[in-house]
Design a protein that fits this description.
By secondary structure, this protein is an alpha/beta fold. It has 2 domains: 2-58; 68-243, 3-Layer(aba) Sandwich (Rossmann fold). It has 11 helices and 5 strands; from the N terminus they run H-H-H-H-E-H-E-H-H-E-H-E-H-H-E-H. The mean pLDDT is 89.
């Protein structure tokens, strides 16, 4: 048994099966070969899933590590966060549907987007997080450096592109056009989830042109789930709660 296990260990090393190697010592006493093989492969699969999750998290570039469990629903009972969570449990990503979280600043939109993104990363879905400002800045820099095409291609790769804080800062005409191109290029090719403090009829304040705004909304709102975050600032309520504790 020991000699056979040592042969397996060498093969696992050659195949770079790290999960199986780490589990090998704890499985040596298993006498049934089928059970041994099953547990060995199960350990490898678990390690592979963990490694993939960490890789997707790194690629997503989330600003925080917030999870759904970090949300205190009592601070803002008007918002049903579980409905947003359902977006990550369904086939919405496979259907290339979009998500819009609309509401005042501080109501938990960013937290929800990060938690949703991490939830999807655990499911093996690729995600990339940007604030609207950082995305437009990256696009403008890419255009100035003559690598816009490459940047646009990279924005098509993630299955979910998250754009946070749309509407907080107005864009130049050039920046608005570049952001429109992102929406247009991902239309029916990949999902977009965004947060905004502006109603759709106020988006001309962001993009300037009525024609451009209308074309963008036509693409984004098609097959889009919209949630209104109504209520007081969660951060302000947390601060008040702590001050009285």
């Amino acid at each position: 048994m020991w000699r056979w296990t040592m042969t397996i260990e060498q093969l696992l090393t050659d195949l770079k099966m790290k999960g199986s190697l780490e589990a090998l010592s704890s499985l040596k006493e298993i006498q049934d070969r089928d059970q041994f093989t099953t547990e060995l492969l199960r350990a490898e699969l678990k390690e592979k899933e963990t490694r993939g999750f960490k890789r997707r998290l790194a690629q997503a570039k989330f600003p925080t590590d917030k999870e759904w469990t970090d949300i205190d629903p009592t601070l803002n009972p008007k918002i049903d966060f579980s409905k947003i969570k359902q977006f990550g449990e369904s086939e919405f990503i496979a259907q290339r549907r979009n998500l819009c979280l609309m509401g005042q600043q501080g109501t938990g939109k960013t937290h929800s987007l990060v938690a949703l993104g991490r939830q999807l990363c655990k499911r093996g879905i690729s995600v990339r997080f940007y604030t609207a400002c950082s995305l437009v800045t990256a696009l403008e820099e890419a255009k100035a450096n003559h690598c816009l095409s490459k940047t646009m291609q990279s924005l098509l790769k993630p299955q979910l592109l998250i754009i946070d804080e749309l509407g907080f800062i107005p864009f130049s005409d050039k920046g608005a056009r570049l952001l429109f191109d992102v929406f247009a290029s991902r239309y029916e090719k990949g999902s977009i989830a965004l947060s905004t403090n502006l109603l759709f009829n106020k988006w001309t304040e962001i993009f300037g042109s009525t024609e451009l705004t209308g074309a963008l909304l036509d693409r984004f709102s098609h097959r889009c789930l919209i949630f209104n975050y109504i209520g007081d600032s969660v951060r302000l309520m947390q601060a008040k709660k702590q001050s009285f504790s």
